[in-house]
Amino acid sequence: MSALLSPVLAKPTPAAVNAAAASFAALTAKLDYLSAADIENVRRAYRYADEAHLGQLRNSGEPYITHPIAVAQQCAEWKLDAQALMAALLHDAIEDCGVTKPELIERFGAPVAELVDGLTKLEKLEFNTREENQAESFRKMLLAMARDVRVILVKLADRTHNMRTLGDVPPAKWARISSETLDIYAPIAHRLGLNTTYRELQDLSFRHLHPWRYATLSKALARARGRRRDVIKRVQSEVEAAFETAGIPVHIHGREKSLYSIYRKMDEKHLSFAQVTDIYGFRVIVGGLTACYTAMGVLHQLYKPMPGRFKDYIAIPKINGYQSLHTTLIGPSSTSIEFQMRTEAMHMVAESGVAAHWLYKANNTQSDASQQLGTQWLQSLLDIQHETRDAAEFWDHVKIDLFPDAVYVFTPKSQIMAMPRGATVVDFAYAIHSDIGHRTVSAKVNGEQVPLRTELHNGDVVEVVTAPISSPNPAWLGFVRTGRARSKIRHHLKTMALTESQDLGEKMLAQALRAEGIDKLPADDETNRSLWERILRFSGNRSRADLLTDVGLGKRIASIVAKRIVKLLAEVGEKPDALLMSRERFTAHESVSQGALLLDGSEGASVQFAKCCKPIPGDGAVGYLGRGEGLVVHTSDCAVAARLQYRDSERFIAVDWSDEPVRTFETSLLVTVSNGKGVLARVAAALATAEADITQVEMQQESTQDAADLRFGVSVRDQAHLTDIIRSVKRTPSVLRVQRVKPGI
């Protein structure tokens, strides 16, 4: 009989201990708040994770699956839902086991896969915690983590277990991991109100970051605890008696300041251990809000309060939702002791923060949240959850409330970039470097091609594609959100416009001089210095470049400047060429006094093509020099141009088209069709066949009529190309009529 019993009574072997820790039974006891279906889903995730990590060991020699189970256990203590527990079990599957996100979606659904993917993004981050800005950005990015606050909670559970087992990691890594935890993860836990986790992470980091200081303080605290044990017991019994006499039911818990908090106070205020007075304290848990203040009155009658050491976090909660009354009293033997008064719901929030949402649901399923949780912040979240039953809206509210004014995104190299809410891909490009912004041509967000106006969301991985010949588009100013991007774009456009205007002005002045019989513009050299100085005195410009820019912008009339130059050249003996003058003047457009400016589409911002008539190569065209607007090109039969010419004729110059334009030009087509299924698709196909790029489509509202008008904006090379396009569309079934639209005619 004894032989049969001896194996049972023997100490379990390490293999048996590992097997027990690696089994689902280690987690089952904590899942009693879940439904049977949810527990089965968590079990499926466990089986999948166990199989994926098969053969992998931790530094301690334990099976790797013990780590995901421990993380899930912590999440279960917070009463997180089944999806979060499944993600906790699977959180290393993508990173360490080669499992793909699509596989997780197929097996466990998109929500779980998104959680695991979010955790994997955080795992990939590498950063130097010495760089405080990077640590701050990372912390804020987590606080505002897109999609789901559960990502942060699972990550904190993961980090907590890693810190608990840090002793198994080579000591060379202790400093980096501990600093990372202290700088980033502990403050996150604090911001989320997870105070128990916050204190544990701080103490574990302190223990591995400064082992000698930790050991010394630990011994000092143990000695102080022994010396003051009798005082603490006396205080607790006196306080319990006072509340019993007052008829107030309370639960009193002793509280000891964490080692790291003591160390930090000693370091910041240059105190010795003996000078730290608030090492010990008590939490008084009462039944309601009014009882908190009544309890404080009872304590103040029992012991004298220390002046200036009272704080009301119930009336004005901390930003993470924490609520309590704090008061420091002078107890027996002049021992200063801090008391914290709070309700059960406040205590839940104080210890578990954001996770109190799930704890509350698990423990008080039939109660009204508005009566239980005095925290306005948490209450608003519960109200939304109760009213909408929309999990996505709930998480969005958490995200916005945690950090309302910014989003945090990744570069492809996992650097964190903080952007204003509503920022676009172009804002991101300029945030990296102005040259990258200027050269941006396209972008990918999370691996998918997106338009440049796409708004960024927390956690997005943004990749910008650049090209050396690209330059900012004025349309970008319509959607960028950051002042940096806006100012950089405007500055570049202004510089580019001035350069282009200068080139245009030089062309126009050279043409005007040819019309006056001078073959070319005088060079800007030593020989002509005196001439240019006299020209600039006449025009009032500071430099030759300024004068040419003003001519290009229409601030100076080229023909007037040209006449002045001719006069000054005549004074030094250079006479106009009569043959050149007659050829240039009298073969040009009748209404202008200078030769035609050649247009090929490469002129940039200095030349605009009027929206009223949308001229294209092959159209008769005239140029109007708007004051400070550069040259605006109209068709020669445009009604708008005719009105301008009537009152401002001296500002018109003749223009002509190059034989080989370098780009396409936009025009409009009005297509009348018989209403029917698929007619728009057929017309669009005909346009594509004719190599016309569609830039805009408009349809009339009265779709019930037999015929309908479709208006297309199309890009064409010239008039011949437009003719081919119209011919192609006319041959399309259901098309009744096609015509070019020129509103200004």
Largest sheet composition:
6 strands, mixed
Q: How far apart are the termini?
A: 112 Å
Summed up, the helix count is 31
Q: What coarse outline follows from CA principal-axis ratios?
A: elongated
Low-confidence stretches: 1-11, 126-147, 359-404, 588-594
- How many individual domains? 5
CATH superfamily of the largest domain: Hypothetical protein af1432
Beta-strand percent range: 15-25%
| Class inferred from helices and paired strands | alpha+beta
Could you tell me the mean pLDDT? 76
CATH class of the largest domain reads Mainly Alpha
Helix content: 40-55%
**Radius of gyration, taken over Cα atoms and rounded to an integer in Å:** 39 Å
CATH architecture of the largest domain: Orthogonal Bundle
How many E strands?
20
CATH topology of the largest domain: Hypothetical protein af1432
Give an account of the 3D structure.
The protein is α+β, with helices and mostly antiparallel strands. It folds into 5 domains: 16-212, Hypothetical protein af1432, CATH 1.10.3210; 217-352, Beta Polymerase, domain 2 (2-Layer Sandwich); 406-481, Ubiquitin-like (UB roll), CATH 3.10.20.30; 492-645, no CATH class; 665-741, Alpha-Beta Plaits. The protein has 31 helices and 20 strands. Strands 1, 2, 3, 4, 5 and 6 form a 6-stranded mixed β-sheet that branches. Strands 12-16-14-15-13 form a 5-stranded mixed β-sheet, sandwiched between helices. Strands 18-19-17-20 form a 4-stranded antiparallel β-sheet, with helices on one face. Strand 5 (325-330) and strand 6 form a beta hairpin. Helix 5 crosses helix 11. The longest helix has 36 residues, at 211-246. The model is unreliable at 1-11, 126-147, 359-404 and 588-594 (pLDDT under 50).
